[in-house]
Amino acid sequence: MNKLLIAKIFQKIKKAPTDITAYEDLFSLCRNIEQEDFALAHSTNEALRKRISIAIKYRKNVEGFFELYKKTLLFDAPHFFDSYLLYLEINRKPKERFYQPRRRVLKRVVDALQKLTNDELDELFISMPPRVGKTTILMFFVTWLIGRKSEASNLYSAYSDTITKAFYNGVLEIINDPVTYLWHDVFPNAKVVQTNSQDETINIDRRKRYPSLTCRSLYGTLNGACDCNGFEISDDLIGGIEEALNKDRLVSAWSKVDNNLLPRAKEKAKILWCGTRWSMVDPAGLRMELLENDERFKNRRYEIINLSALDEDDESQFDYDYSVGFSTEYYRMRRASFERNNDMASWQAQYMGEPIERDGALFSPGEFRYYNGVLPDEEPDRVFMAVDPAFGGGDFVASPVCFQYGDDIYVHDVVYDSGDKRITQPLLAQAVIKYNVVAMQIEANKSTEAYKDGVQDELKKQNRRINLTTKAAPSDKAKYQRIFDKAPDIRENMIFRESGKRSKAYSLFMQNVFSYKMFAKNKNDDAPESLAMAMDMVRGSTMRTQVFKRLF
């Protein structure tokens, strides 16, 4: 009956999109049926809100439609975090709001937090670069939690008292500022009955032994301070690079987490890990490893979200509206600075969410040779390409375009793309034609012949023939060992474009090289593998010889 009536009202709205009466009738119906059919009431309310957004564009009765829009948000706000965030700041100018300018990016985080709240997850891991709003979104999340369920006890922890104090003050500001934030609209019956700035605690509705919110540093007094049956939130448990480089301090941090922090959470409490990843063995990393590999945690429901500074296209993911974020240019400059300082491990950890153990990284920017993109003023001995094809699962086709001058191998350009063969085969052919490549070798596997034939077909379209071969990887040697064996030759003989003289693909290629680590699980190893293949081609060719006078 309700569904039929809803459909009829939507038909009326469609016929008269500027008549607010039908919209108001539908909203009243949503409120009336909420108790008997919560899901239908709120899904209809969401659909109604979208219709209102369209109606506002007609510029008729804008004020009336906007007030109704606010009512639909308020109706959803106690139950849905995204709606809460939109309503909370709706009286502020759009450019002054926190969430609205960042929603396009942070909606993924907000949706994951909703899943955690809805008991679809037990644990959630969130990694983002510095200064993109991860702690602020946690502040808003906590104000929503304690408004919804004041009886639950929630615990927020960070590496220092300074951070927890700032978080405590931020939560109070959102709750106590009715002009800037509409928290009391959403939770009209909720009352702040007790705060303690020294203990960093907040009680909603009544005084409790374990407050609605307790903020406490990892190195503060956790035992007995909170019996967490709501949400246990860890935010940046590692203070910075100094701690990340000190194995003893990392061990100490995990010991504090495992002995003092995690036991504060009751069995049904939700665990939230948020912050910048610094090391494979930071607390979040160790917890992930436990959940992924220990059979006793097989029923544990968890999700890992990593929002990197630059996406797979080397573009910023945090170029927020109203210029409140960070541009692609900014992040590329930050990366160049780290590379110049021979510290790509910090870039990968802080900005890309891919922590690298410094003693495991095989290649360092400071060990390589570079040039300004201008090749020597003479004919090269040959121009060749080695191709590491993609095998699926996020792999890249990686191929350096190599100009050989005696023992020196200039990597003048690269093909580096995660697209399928319809994209990568033409890219390889274009590189052959552009640079007059005479030889190409593709690593052999079950599908390589077909892939080689596709490249060959692309070249035939341009009436071009080259020495195109396939070569199987040695069966007696693991891939990481092949890369390791060729690493000295890569460092000594290969010359790469300097930072600032690279294309987008070239920059991503070098990032993959610098992030490669020995004796660890690599997200992909396509770029370093292609360099090792190229050095194999060099050693298998005739190189310039030097004639020395016999001593005897």
Number of domains: 3
Task: Output the number of helix runs.
Answer: 19
pLDDT average, as an integer?
90
Order of strands across the main sheet: 3-4-5-2-6-7-1-8
| CATH fold group of the largest domain | Rossmann fold
Unreliable sequence segments: 542-552
Helix content: 40-55%
Largest sheet: 8 strands, mixed
Please give the radius of gyration in angstroms.
Answer: 29 Å
Gap between N and C termini: 107 Å
Please characterize this protein's 3D structure.
The chain has 3 domains: 1-76, no CATH class; 77-306, Rossmann fold (3-Layer(aba) Sandwich); 361-539, Nucleotidyltransferase, domain 5 (2-Layer Sandwich). 44% of the residues lie in helices and 15% in strands. It contains 19 helices and 15 strands. The protein has helices at residues 2-15, 20-33, 38-56, 62-76, 81-88, 99-117, 134-148, 161-176, 183-186, 241-245, 247-261, 283-293, 328-340, 344-350, 421-435, 448-461, 479-493, 504-515, 526-539; strands at residues 123-127, 154-157, 192-196, 201-204, 213-215, 231-235, 270-275, 302-306, 369-371, 382-387, 397-405, 408-417, 439-444, 467-472, 494-497. The strands form 2 sheets. The protein has an 8-stranded mixed β-sheet with strand order 3-4-5-2-6-7-1-8, with helices on both faces. It has a 7-stranded mixed β-sheet with strand order 9-15-12-11-10-13-14. β3 (192-196) and β4 form a beta hairpin.
